Fold these 3 entries.
Entry 1:
Amino acid sequence: MFFKLENLYSGYGHVPVICGIDLEVVRGEVAIILGRNGVGKTTLMKTIIGLLPRTSGEIIFNDLPISDLPVYSRACLGLAYVPQGRGIFPDLTVEENLRMGEGINIAAKTRPYTEVFTYFPRLKERLRQKGGTLSGGEQQMLALGRALIGDPRLLLLDEPSEGIQPNIVGEIGAVLAHLNEEKNLTILLVEQNIEYALSISRSCHMMNKGKIVARVAHDELHNVETIKKYLAI
Amino acid sequence: MSTVFSVSYIFADSAAFLLLSALGLIIILGMMGITNMAHGEFMMLGAYTTAIATHAGLPFGLSVLSSMLTMGAFGIIIEMLVIRRFYGNLLQSLVVTWGLSLVISQGMLIILGPSIPSLPMPMGGFSVGGKVYAAYRVFLPVISILVVAAMGLLLFKTRFGMKARATMQNPEIAQVMGVNTKAMYMFTFGLGSALTGLAGALYAPTTVLGPLYGANFLAPAFVTVVVSGGTNIIVGALMAAGILGLVDGIFNYWFGAVIGRLALLTATMFVIRFFPSGLSRWLANRRSV
Ligand SMILES: Nc1ncnc2c1ncn2[C@@H]1O[C@H](COP(=O)(O)OP(=O)(O)OP(=O)(O)O)[C@@H](O)[C@H]1O
Ligand SMILES: [Mg+2]
């Protein structure tokens, strides 16, 4: 079993947000969860990486139940999380931010700096610059680059398209598609931007009110009515 | 010539005093947001350890080192038993470390009484322009520079330092990058305690040793922390100790120790009024403009 969520519940205090999610991600897949604002996408991602404790249910990663492990152990096992809002260390330089990624997946044999600089040459030009002084798009590149330095087994992305100009969104999408096809990188991505989701995956899971309500194939996704139905727009 | 030397001597002595007495406090506050009200008592324990070790026959230098290690270990234990329950809660952590300070000083009073045998000043003296100076008072500024340089290297040139700074800026994301922030806090508190113990040990020969030994250092230490601000621990501490030491040095030489201390506090109020978030933040903002 590569990655699986089993009847997962979590939330904040007494307020449940994730209400029984079952989901399996197979190795080499790009799994996308689509849902509009406030359905619990970020809450789900935080529960997977461990920043939020699960209320009940289980998270399986590489045949291992990980929901009792602390965040840093999950990272060491190879889960890389790119948070919504990017989570750049503002007073560390770009280079230091990237080097922080080396803490992910301690079993990795390589730290792919050359690849990351090929994908995002702008980062290489700004190595000495403080992370906090980068533009939003550059910060997103840095956040993704930092996760990639970890050579992760599973990449968790929370709305990488948010608040970024379209050409950079496209650039990042192309990198993700390339990584998945060429390097067989497994990705779990949560989004509310349908076009963006369509550009990198064949199918999507629809999320509403803390539940996965449907799995929709690529051709159906073009049908606006279907999407509206599942996302309850 | 001798005036220049005299003023420089007082300046260096004062700046070193401010720097050493504040460093542990600054690291613990900067890294963990904990204001350690037991800072003075940690210094007292450092001084006591050195005095006891020296009287037991250990050379002074080794005694100082041993009290640094002892206080580092002590800090780690205190972190595990007490401090880690109060991260992120400013008021509770203030009260709990204040309680700790009472327990330590009163405990020492009960165990070892109101004073313990003091230490002779090591290294003797020398004279410039007919005035005699203590060599140890020149040695302390040198040590303080070395300690700060070592801290700078640790924080800015090592992988550990990078992780420590990342943890300070965003502990959640540091964990996401595989940093065991719990262990990081524990170790950093130990480091801060070790530096506090070192300062206490180094100043042990300069005064009488009693359970309230640390009180001498508390005001100067807090003043330095407030003036330094939190952006860059090392630069902030250096700037604060430098400026305050200069004020103290000048006023102390011409008007005496009391006026020197008053000038120090006035300078601090001036800094708080005009640079409310401290000198290092002011410098950082200027740089990024
Ligand atoms: N720290 C918190 N404490 C309490 N409730 C929270 C907290 N964070 C989020 N919530 C609530 O949980 C629900 C889900 O939030 P979440 O951030 O997971 O949504 P999202 O799907 O990521 O939305 P978006 O697309 O806007 O990022 C929302 O109703 C939100 O108000
Ligand atoms: Mg979100």
Note: The longest helix of chain A spans residues 166-183.
Entry 2:
Amino acid sequence: MGDQIQLEELFQQRIDAGGKIEPKDWMPEKYRKTHIRQISQHAHSEIVGMLPEGNWITRAPSLRRKVGLLAKVQDEAGHGLYLYSAAETLGISRDEMFDQLHTGKAKYSSIFNYPTLSWADIGTIGWLVDGAAIINQVMLTRTSFGPYARAMVRICKEESFHQRQGYEIMLGLAQGTPEQKAMAQDALNRFWWPSLMMFGPRDEDSPNTELSVKWKIKRKTNDELRQQFIDITVPQAEYLGLTIPDPDLKWNDERGHYDFGEIDWDEFWTVVKGNGPCNTERLKARVDAWEEGAWVREAALAYSEKQVIKKNQKAKLAS
Amino acid sequence: MSLRTYILSLSDNAMILGHRLSELCGHGPTLETDIALTNISLDFFGQVRSYLQYLASIDGDQVTEDTLAFLRTEREHHNCILLEQPNVDFAHIIMRQYLFDVFQLLQLEQQMLSTDETIAAIAAKAIKEARYHQRFSESWVLRLGDGTEVSHTKMQTALDTLYPFVHELFTQNDWEKELVEQGIASDVKGFESRYYDTVFQTLKSANLSKDDIINRYAQGKNGIHTEHLGYILTELQYMQRAYPNMQW
Ligand SMILES: [Fe+2]
Ligand SMILES: [Fe+2]
Ligand SMILES: [Fe+2]
């Protein structure tokens, strides 16, 4: 027991000193479990996030936009891949993580349970959703678990490219025809509040973030991050000439921040609990891809086993 | 006029297959194949842009890569009909890909020698991509053909469905013959036997048989397509048709 306490102290000292925890290092069981959960859910968000945007690849309005969107969605698949690999270093397989996703045991970001109904939604997702993701994730580039921190460095670079690409789509629409401008405004109307929800419940409703802070998974609270996002985004919307759908949104000189209206927390919990507009469809798409791909994965495995046998036979004959 | 049709035929092969692959994004059997197929789709759309920007520069006036990509009717498309065949399952996706990849690689080798500098330059860039595409699809033909009984049956079905369209890749219309004589177009007849040698070799290694397969009517290069193309174009052209003359 004394050993355990000493190990934990050393472990925490290392984190406090800014050191990284690597997969082979000793770590408290809770640290391992928390990281498996967080990293795998982040990975799931990346790959489920491919679906609402993938929805517009075949209908992209120009060749340039199609190529940009294809590349973006491919990046998200890459993010999923790095993150699954990072989680695997903690002793869970990708298949197990997929199983948790498919059975609803693991969550993914709720924002992807909203439908993409027009081309402007693609711009809005890049601008707001990738934008919110960056704010959430920049702090993770300095998190204590080495593989996660390193994956996030690469991912954040690509996310900021996505954010700029999304904003650029919006700029084109905002400067376009009245129809295009209306399309942009409608997308902002639908995605604004769900984007704010991406930062999670209010601090007073957010169960212990103490450990998260200790392990440097979190450096700021949900409400601080949400405020930061709003403060950055409002001037961007103004520049586009678009109206944020919140009558209570107002600059507060005293606070040095924007005040904003109440988030619809009923909607938040409805979607989190699986009853959002696209939860069923998103999960079904992932499960279908997995099930329809089973024979492919089995064949690949059988083939590689056959290759090994053939190689061994050759080696035997040669000797 | 023949140069125009020729460029469109090259571009449409890439565009229609690129579109089919782009339908799959996020739905593949593994994350790795998903990434690879999206990558191949991206390569094809890159080629399309090069061809259509070239064609737009010839056409002049109000013509752009996008008016060329999104505002033509079914009858104005010149892709071979192999490429518009649907994504029935992963076996069909891989088989369609392989049967075209071998062809495209050989075609690009010739195209690099084109007397038309732009067409040659596009080929020089695309050939690197095509080599990777063929390696990818061939490895999967082998894996699935010689994997399990299930995968073997699915691959044989895919071959039976798709192989009857392969012969169209080697048809030569009058407009194409004229360009071959001028040294602009690659002569498909020149590498036909190499194509079949390569494909037969792979099919044999993958335990697949094409012995009883009979060619099907195929006139895609002349703008006569299967019913699939209309639906591809409906999706592909949706935004340009619904919101004409706008910048995106
Ligand atoms: Fe991402
Ligand atoms: Fe992300
Ligand atoms: Fe992103």
Note: The longest strand of chain A covers residues 250-252.
Entry 3:
Amino acid sequence: MNRDSAVLVFLELGSDNAVLPVSLECITAGRKLADALQGWLFGLIMGSSVGGAADHARHCGLDRLYTLDCPLLGVYHPETYCPAFLRACDETNPHFILMGDTLASADLAPRAAFALDTGLITDCVGFEADRSGVCFIKPVYSSNVMAAYTMKTKPYLVTIRSGTEDPAQRQHDKGAEVVALAVEIGESTLMVEVLERVLDEQEGPRLTSSSIIVSGGRGVGGPEGFAVLRELARVLNAAVGASRPPVDLGWVPPKAQVGQTGEKVGPSVYVAIGISGATQHLAGMSASRTIVAINKDPAANIFKVADYGVVGNQEQVVPAFTEVLKEILP
Amino acid sequence: MNIIVCIKQVPDPEGPQECFLIKPETMRVEPRGIPPVLSLFDENALEAALRIKDVYKDEVKITVVSIGKKISNAVLQKALAVGADELVKVEGETFDSACLDSFATATAIVASIRKLGAYDLILAGRQSADCNAGQVGIFLAGLLGIPAVTLARKVVVQGAHVVVERLLSSGYEKVRTLLPAVVIVSNEAGEMRYPTMIQRMEAKKKPVKTWDAQDIGFEGATLNRLVLRRFFAPEMRQGQCRLIDGETLAEAGRNLAQRLRRDGVI
Ligand SMILES: Cc1cc2nc3c(=O)[nH]c(=O)nc-3n(C[C@H](O)[C@H](O)[C@H](O)COP(=O)(O)OP(=O)(O)OC[C@H]3O[C@@H](n4cnc5c(N)ncnc54)[C@H](O)[C@@H]3O)c2cc1C
């Protein structure tokens, strides 16, 4: 193996301290890259009390797992995470660094790129490796165009959109070696001070981990319409998502937004109700296995990507749909 | 207080797909038949600046800096009409967005900001609506050696500090840092207000500076770290949509449930 061409995958933890699904997808992408380069595949977990996450991740096909375990890393703060992250880069000297495209990486990745004097390609949906090097593919111009980028500098820093790869699965093997790194980070020197954190009450399943999503758009008509969708979601044990207008209009909280600037999801079933299917919305959900659309406009773009559809006023379709599901679902 | 808002002019991102023509020879995307607009999140950044000016009135001067190959006065005048005080256009072939990556762009903006002189707060959108790189704001802060706060949904100036509500995946956090600082704004900060007719007229009298690469001492694309290899058309997901119907829409809804169950989808 060529140690010069290590791939380092940053494994972000969710609020439950488990590795995010998109980070497990990065392991899959990282494995392909590492194999193409005949290099190492390293993982990195940063956080507080990361033992459980590390125990899972070391069985997911890594060659080595680095951990940075420190109470100050329990929540993301750029001035603690970035130096810790750079410490791990220093240790592993990676050629490629992959992370999920998330709210945290939207902050961390550019800071790391700046500190490492290197380039960053965000929100990638694939890569191509050949003799001339590796190109990363990223949707641009509202996903109407794809761009292939490579880099003049090293390491390549790349964030990956969720739904790009299958998440790496836990294997029954002896597991990768775990190396605990030490960092010294002080809280006293922080330039940006956190005054308070306001967390939403989470009702029902989360968008990013749910296998079914019921999502509404402007055609849902208002908060009352979303109450009907929530009932459908309850019956399906699904998370509730939305296109941007319902978020902008205050019908649903911002975290419900699916799309280019919201969550990127890839559930097994995505039910799009009163959503036209703008490219910016498709960017967040076209990785879904099955798409079901209910829309009154037969020409709506959503039908171009959907597998099942009903053309009609959702106010009449959805309650009947929900009633039957209540009867037939176990 | 000097607030600088960085605004990019982009082809209307909501334009239909066929309007984004890919030119492989020149490695460019040429918009056809869609107007240029202010990039969405940059409008949110300007709105955040205007809300600060609503509080501090004439104590605040808002300067809009826009960098690009050719910047339309008509498009950028909208920024002046809603309440920005001055526009700085940094124009020329060198600034073609297809030729500059985020690092080179940030370097050009910093050169323009330095030429302008005083600044307390710099606002930028979280990502441009065309390239979506999402890096310029943090690079600005890095190059200027000042703090950056990202993903802002609310920006308030309190004395020597800026207090920002920053989006988290499960809520938000309120953070505070000393000025000068860069704050990177998300759409949750609010849509940009509409100008009145009178404001539109007055905007035409507001000062506009036009600079080129030489004026700001900008080297150009040699600063790039990324290399664009090619543009290509995306493969659209093609669902074979099975349309389910019924005598009534309610029946169609019932049939849909039965069908999804029968096909093992749910
Ligand atoms: C830079 C940028 C980023 C963006 N990011 C996102 C993003 O992350 N996520 C996102 O979703 N959007 C995003 N957008 C916005 C996007 O372009 C669209 O404007 C948006 O997705 C449209 O939402 P919609 O489909 O709900 O509304 P509309 O386009 O207004 O469509 C409403 C649909 O509902 C149907 N309808 C209406 N009434 C009924 C009824 N009673 N029964 C059945 N059907 C009905 C209509 O036929 C129509 O198809 C972004 C835009 C830009 C420029």
Note: Chain B is about 30% helix and 30% strand.
